[in-house]
Amino acid sequence: METNTAELIENLRRSQAENGQVEVKAAAGGFPKSVLETVSAFANGDGGTILLGLTDPAEGLQPVEGFNAQAVHDASVEAIRSKITPRPPVDIHIEAVDIEAAEGQHRIVRIDVLPGDPTQKPYYIEAHGMYNGSYQRVGEADIRLTKYEIDRLLENRSQPRYDEELISEASFKDLSPTLVSAYVARLREEQPRVFAALSDREVLLQARILRIDSEGREVPTLGALLAMGSYPQAFFPQLMMSVVVLPGEELGEVTEDGRRFLDNHSCTGPIPSMLDEAMGVLVRNMRKTSTMEGLNSSGIGRVERYEYPLEAIRELLVNALMHRDYSPGARGSQVQVELYTNRLVVRSPGGIYGAVTIRDFGQPGVSSTRNSYLASILTDLPDPGTGRLIAENRASGIPTVLRALKDAGLPAPQFADRLLYVQVTLTQPPQGVSSTEQKTAHEDKTQQTTHSKGKRSADTAEPAGADASLDGLSERQVGIVRGLRAQGEAVSAAFIQEHWGRGASRTSITNDLRSLVDAKLIVPTAPPRSKNRKYRAA
């Protein structure tokens, strides 16, 4: 939002569309009521800018005839101050800007909305109420927040306790003896004055692993069941981790024999088991290289390196399981891990908890724990196989990931925070591997996995320049055509935007589709105004 207005207008004119952080309104008849929805959306998200007094970007952002900047400014100040609760952080002022094809300067109103205080969200239109008047920005649109999303924002005002919920259907018999023994031994070793003289049962009660329910029964908590249960999914089937290995760079790409997934595994059991299973799936499917480094007892040592550091992956998986949303509304969603040929994606239900933002990730001393009870269990729970504690919970997870990626010569992770999920993406460097690595990988073919082999994708089926019909198209339009050809079936505009849109707005995608239809490269399946309209390759 520090971009000056002239530059902002020029950027919009080039793109001919609004975006997730800029909204333009003509306001010819005075202050538009829809501005309140946009202010709510920006304040509940990452902020944004509203320009009043200009035509739509598709119409060239021209001055609006009869626009009264002072009157709109005063009305904006009054409306935003009195009709949105809590009061959002905004800066409203009048600016004079030069407009091409217009004489002299044109006065407009600029409204800069800063990201709201996480402990104050949601910002909503008071007349509509919190659950009907709270909005978020999705592309160019202001979308009303769902009840689930609003509840997640309200969580930031206090400490969630869902992980402490008593699971009355379960009992001590549903806990793993191996994990319980390891946990109890750890507590006795670390805090002998508290636990040394207690029986195993008394230790579990004292540590609140077991609690007494309303009927006088000893039952485990949700956090205890997730950390040490023999099979927590018997009670919560979707509280697991899915790991899929894909043959290409996008969903929908298939191998030569038609497979959409090279591996597809549901990791179940307690958190330590899910971690082990997920790591096993990724290890057997990641590319790896071998180099000769240093000396060992036999002479020259052989070092194997995976395409992503195992230490970084494990930290991301632990974070995803430990900090995910365990509220009732999220118990139908699992942690998702996707291994593409060019990136690794870890997606966890629920947005970031507390006052922490993705800009804070990796900063010293920055931490916010949604499931503090579960985290405390995992910090004292040894992995039966290695003896290593499952988690540290010392705000060291992301710094560990950053260090491991840097040591491996890989880019820093990409973070995305939404109310529905948090996503972390590890990527490969833009340049290819060295000739030495290529030679080593070729010689070690028997140990390489196949997730990068045999794919039939838009990129491999049609190399750049192989099809003259694609000449003159933008890079994004080429990607859409190739994507639809590889897809083999009709898909919606929303699907196209998500998978081949390269971050473009809905308006831009719509314009691309219209151009491609006119060029007879793609075919719509229904009239323009039909809700069932989809597109397929010609």
Q: What does this protein look like?
A:
The chain is α+β, with helices and mostly antiparallel strands. It has four domains: 5-145, Methyltransferase, Cobalt-precorrin-4 Transmethylase, Domain 2; 162-234, no CATH class; 241-427, Heat Shock Protein 90, CATH 3.30.565; 458-537, Arc Repressor Mutant, subunit A, CATH 1.10.10.10. It has 18 helices and 22 strands. A hairpin with a 2-residue loop joins strand 7 and strand 8. Helix 17 packs across helix 18. It is globular. The protein starts with a helix and ends with a strand. The model is unreliable at 431-450 and 452-466 (pLDDT under 50).
CATH architectural designation of the largest domain = 2-Layer Sandwich
Overall CATH class of the largest domain = Alpha Beta
Query: How many domains, as an integer?
Result: 4
How would you sum up the major sheet?
Answer: 6 strands, mixed
CATH topology of the largest domain: Heat Shock Protein 90
What is the helix tally?
18
Residue fraction in strands: 15-25%
Uncertain ranges? 431-450, 452-466
Derived from helix and strand composition plus strand pairing, the structural class reads alpha+beta
- Share of residues in helices: 25-40%
Principal-axes geometry comes out as globular
Give the CA-CA distance, first to last residue.
Answer: 42 Å
Q: Quick one: how many beta strands?
A: 22
Q: Largest sheet, order of strands side by side?
A: 13-11-16-17-19-18
User: What is the mean predicted local confidence, pLDDT?
Assistant: 85
- Rg estimate, integer Å: 27 Å
